[in-house]
Amino acid sequence: MPTPSQDKTLQFIRRYLAQHGHAPSLSAIAAGLGLRSKAVVHRHVQALADQGYLTVEPGRHHGIALTGKAAEDLLSLPLAGRIAAGQP
């Protein structure tokens, strides 16, 4: 389960991919999240990769890709409650 900061990073990467068609760089993620340190972004991205949400290709400037686990989380909806559906 990602931390709130990691979740913000993952959401930013999803939005960036949808808008631009390619993965963001660490600098773009840092700028988009209002962070000054690329090292912090790198830790978040690496933690998300370790948890199976992303794959990272070392040495590539835009080498971040979403995995199936990240896509599954997009399709699930949280339940807010129950509705009684008895006889009318």
Strands, helices and their partners?
Layout: H1 4-20, H2 26-33, H3 38-50, E1 54-56, E2 64-66, H4 68-75
Antiparallel strand pairs: 1-2
Helix pairs in contact: 1-3, 2-3
Short description:
With 88 residues, the protein is mainly α.
Output mean pLDDT.
83
> What is the helical fraction, as a range of percent?
40-55%
Content of β-strand: 5-15%
Q: Could you state the oligomeric state of the chains shown?
A: single chain
Biggest sheet overview: 2 strands, antiparallel
Distance between the termini: 41 Å
The total of helices stands at 4
Structural class of the helix and strand makeup?
Answer: mainly alpha
Uncertain residue segments: none
> What is the radius of gyration?
16 Å
The count of DSSP E runs of length 2 or more, i.e. the number of strands, is 2
Strand order of the largest sheet: 1-2
How do the helices and strands follow one another from N- to C-terminus?
Answer: HHHEEH
Query: Looking at the structure, what is the overall shape?
Result: elongated
Describe this structure in words.
By secondary structure, the chain is mainly α. The chain is built from 4 helices and 2 strands, in the order H-H-H-E-E-H. A two-stranded antiparallel ribbon has the order 1-2. Strand 1 (54-56) and strand 2 (64-66) form a beta hairpin. Helix 1 (4-20) packs across helix 3 (38-50) and helix 2 packs across helix 3 (38-50). The protein is elongated and about 60 Å long.
